[in-house]
Design brief:
Strand content of chain B: over 45%
Largest interface: A-B, 24 and 24 residues
Oligomer: heterodimer
Shape of chain B: globular
Largest sheet of chain A: 6 strands, mixed
Number of helices of chain B: 0
Shape of chain A: globular
Distance between the termini of chain B: 37 Å
Structural class of chain A: mainly beta
Largest sheet of chain B: 7 strands, mixed
Order of helices and strands of chain A: EEEEEEEEEEE
C-alpha cells in the first residue's frame, strides 16, 4: 500500500529564514511525485512534478528535489506570502497524498 | 492543460438527505479521476478513483458512492448524509493523452446539519 509521510507537520519561519520540508514515500512503481500549495478554503495549486531520482525543479523561492525514497521542498528566503500548506503526493496507478506541512512566515 | 469544473462551491444539507456532487473535466480524454475529502486542518483522504467509464475503486468504507457515466464526468453521491460527511470535497484528474500532471477542481464545502 502506498504511504506518504510529510514532516514537520507545522513550520514557523521568520521572513528570510530558509528551511526544508520533507516527503518520504513508499510506492511500488513511482510515475511521478507532485508538490502542491494549498491556501485555506481553496483547492491545491500545482507547483512541481518530479519523475526520477536526482531530478530538481525550481520556481521562484521554491526548489524541489527527489531521491528514491524521499523528496524535499526547499524554501529560500521566504516571504509572508509563502505561508500555506504544502502537500506532497505520489502517483503510481492512483494519486496518494501526505498530510501536509503548514508553513507560517512572519514578517 | 486540463480544467476541472466542480460544483456547487458550498452546500448545506440536513442529516439524512441525499447528495450529488458533480465534476467534469475539459482538455483531455481518458483521464484517471479522483474524489478526495479534506477535514479541517488535515490532509487529503482518497475516497474513490476511476481509471475509466464505469470503473470505480473505493479506498475507504463509507456511506458514499461514486459513478463515472461518461469519460470526463465523475459523480459523488450519498443516499443519506451523516454529520460525519461534512468536509471539503475535491475532484482531481491525472493521466489521459500522455499527461501525467494532476489537476484539481476548486472544491465543494459540504456542511451537514
Amino acid at each position: 500500500e502506498d504511504q506518504v509521510t510529510q514532516s514537520p507537520e507545522a513550520l514557523r519561519l521568520q521572513e528570510g529564514e530558509s528551511s526544508s520540508l520533507n516527503c518520504s514515500y513508499t510506492v511500488s512503481g513511482l510515475r511521478g511525485l507532485f508538490w502542491y500549495r494549498q491556501d485555506p478554503g481553496k483547492g491545491p495549486e500545482f507547483l512541481f512534478t518530479l519523475y526520477s531520482a536526482g531530478e530538481e525543479k525550481e520556481k521562484e523561492r521554491l526548489k524541489a528535489t527527489l531521491t528514491k525514497k524521499e523528496s524535499f521542498l526547499h524554501i529560500t528566503a521566504p516571504k509572508p506570502e509563502d505561508s500555506a500548506t504544502y502537500l506532497c503526493a505520489v502517483y503510481d496507478y492512483k494519486l496518494s497524498f501526505g498530510a501536509g506541512t503548514t508553513v507560517t512566515v512572519r514578517a | 492543460s486540463q480544467t476541472i469544473h466542480q460544483w456547487p462551491a458550498t452546500l448545506v444539507q440536513p442529516v439524512g438527505s441525499p447528495l450529488s456532487l458533480e465534476c467534469t473535466v475539459e482538455g483531455t480524454s481518458n483521464p484517471n479521476l479522483y474524489w478526495y475529502r479534506q477535514a479541517a486542518g488535515r490532509g487529503l483522504q482518497l475516497l474513490f478513483y476511476s481509471v475509466g467509464i464505469g470503473q470505480i475503486s473505493s479506498e475507504v468504507p463509507q456511506n458514499l458512492s461514486a459513478s463515472r457515466p461518461q469519460d470526463r464526468q465523475f459523480i459523488l453521491s450519498s443516499k443519506k448524509l451523516l454529520l460525519s460527511d461534512s468536509g471539503f470535497y475535491l475532484c482531481a484528474s491525472t493521466g489521459g493523452a500522455g499527461d501525467t500532471e494532476a489537476f484539481f477542481g476548486q472544491g465543494t464545502r459540504l456542511t451537514v446539519v
